[in-house]
Amino acid sequence: MDINPQNQTLNNPDQTPKNSKLTAIGAWMIIIGLALGGFSINKYFKTHPIKSQNDTPKEQLIVIEQILKEVIPDDGYEINAKWGDIGPNLIKSGTIDLEKFKELYLQDGGLKSNELAILENASDSNIKITKENAHFVLNLLWAFGLAQQNKLLTKGDMIKYGDYKKFASTGGWTISAKPIEEFYSKYNWVNLDSKKEERIKNIAENVYRPCCNNSTAFPDCNHGMAALGLIEIMVAGNTPEDEIYEALRYFNSFWFSSSYLEMAIYFKQVKNKDWSEVDAKEILSKNYSSSGGWAKNIHKELEKTPEFLPKNPEGGGCGV
Q1: Which of 12, 37, 162, 173 has a Cα at 20 to 30 A from 316?
Q2: Can you give the pTM of this predicted structure?
Q3: What does the pLDDT look like over 191-216, one tens digit per residue?
């Protein structure tokens, strides 16, 4: 496993946006921005330059819009697992300070009524990620991943590589009601046993995210911890492995939209494969979803056809 604990410290530099000239390829980026609504990538598409030498045909715009809908479905993605009492447990345990959590969303009009219901009451609704709630889902799964008991957190790389409280996933969680040592890996809410924990470990070791070169077995950032939480919930429900990888493929796509859009364009243009034909486990592998694998095998390849390539695609931030 390629471990780089320095990738996810608390100081994560933001990429600097630059202005760009609108071209035909820029038009498809506006399509993406509109499709993503208020998601953070909208800002990226308005401010980052585009490497293009020629106008893109109208037909290509249509193809790229179709690819976008495959990567980030308009209706979101729902798994066969319920939120249950995850929200109330996180608040009761002090993992989430409800008032601090609410404050995060005030600038966007506040939490939706269904989101508050998930936090405050036992919820019978399935876990579903959409363009509108991707940030809420990320934070809730992040909190769950922090508090759910798992040997990956107490005997794995989170302990091996220094003070566990100083990673982005731990020290960056600033909206708790208690110090992290009072809830970190303290609660077995979904009744994991040693056999299920081993299954979680095996899956997590095969799942990467574009913000670093660490697998989900080393959840040192928010996306890694949230992905671990999602795996735990699905393994607890005895979900088949292929369904877990498929869910992670979509959740990662909502959290790292432009990275996975580039990946889908790569498979279409270079491999002549539709996004739906690409195996989810392959997509999430170190070869494609780690920052190094993505840069080498996706971005670098697309640089050979720059008309399809936005410059410096934006990833999700690794803090609250």
Answers
A1: 162
A2: 0.82
A3: 999 999 999 999 999 999 999 999 99
